[in-house]
Amino acid sequence: MHELSLAERLVELMEQAAIDQSFSRIRVIELEVGSLAGVDAEALRFALEAAIAGTLADGASLRLQTPTGTARCQDCDRDIAIDTRHDPCPQCGGHRLTITGGDCLLLKHLEVE
Amino acid sequence: MCGTCGCSDQNRLSPVGIHPPEQRGQRLIRLEQSVLGQNDAHARENRAWLAERGIVALNLVSSPGSGKTSLLERTLTDLREEIPFTVIEGDQQTSRDAERVRATGVRAVQVNTGKGCHLEAHQIRQALTDLQPEAQSVLFIENVGNLVCPALFDLGEQGKVVIFSVTEGEDKPIKYPDMFHRAALVILNKIDLLPYLDFSVETCLDYLRQVNPAVPVIPLSATRGTGLSAWYDWLKDRTSGQSPFHPGSEAVYPTGRV
Hints:
The complex is a heterodimer of chains A (113) and B (258). Chain A is an alpha+beta fold. Chain A has one domain (2-112): 2-Layer Sandwich (hypothetical protein PF0899 fold). Chain A is 27% helix and 31% strand. Chain A has two helices and six strands; from the N terminus they run αβαβββββ. Chain A has helices at residues 2-21, 41-51; strands at residues 26-33, 61-65, 69-73, 79-82, 97-101, 105-112. A three-stranded mixed sheet of chain A has the order 2-1-6, covered by helices on one side. Chain A is elongated and about 50 Å long. The relative contact order of chain A is 0.26. The model of chain A has no long low-confidence stretch (mean pLDDT 94). Chain B is of the alpha/beta class and 258 residues long. Chain B has eight helices and eight strands; from the N terminus they run βαβαβαβαββααβαβα. The interface between A and B is large, with 41 and 47 residues. Strand 6 of chain A pairs antiparallel with strand 1 (27-34) of chain B.
């Protein structure tokens, strides 16, 4: 359940942003949870809803973007989309893939007052 | 109450039900911050600190009960005259593993993660301060027994060694692909039990190749001693600097980290 510690880290990042950019309330939190990020988006939502209670983001709505994974196949040299790290290349069936995206966990935007 | 943001202003909702922030005294802050950015920064500091001293740090990860600590005890006992070692032990509770390591004559620091399911880079930094490993030594970091969470947290190690026992099932590599994908070495432990199990090494390796095609695999039995020489040779190659970690075992942290 590393989602709980990630949620706590998100609260720290938001509290720091509030100091840096002078705001006192967060109304909307937008996150990017890539499908290869190793994070369960719904577990993170559950953990974050608990972690923001009583903070400057109490009651904020959460928007989660979940981009699919992308990779470059070293065998056929194509850019491909994958859902998991053990997916083969849909073009050639190879497994020698270099992940190029969809593996990030990002705090994208906040709507604040 | 507005279902989008919890405010009481229903009249200013856009046709898609979202308040344009500029119309409500709200503003949009663009951050694009990696949630793991701080851990990654600490890990980079650890990696630089270790590299300056020529210390090879290996992050040992596995499920609970794979035989990690037994392998460590055996390795330390067999090689401590040849290689200077130190150990950081991570467990949620107790210092039992650090005591097992100290019984071999090797210095160890126990980190208790409490409710945490993994070690983080700042804990390693503190442990390094306490431990002060000598230059040109090998540091083993025995992570919390868990194949999920420790995959995400770079500690500043040179490589992750995944220990996986034949009692666990052939398909573990594809069940926990994030961890196996990041492995610099996979140790298949408890092979002395193979005659009693319905476990196909070939099938297991096929699954492993799907998530990490180039990773080296060493089958062994930590308790019987079978196959240990291959592990010791791998370790000595790392300390001599002759064999780099296999391509792909580095730079496998997310592509867009800030």
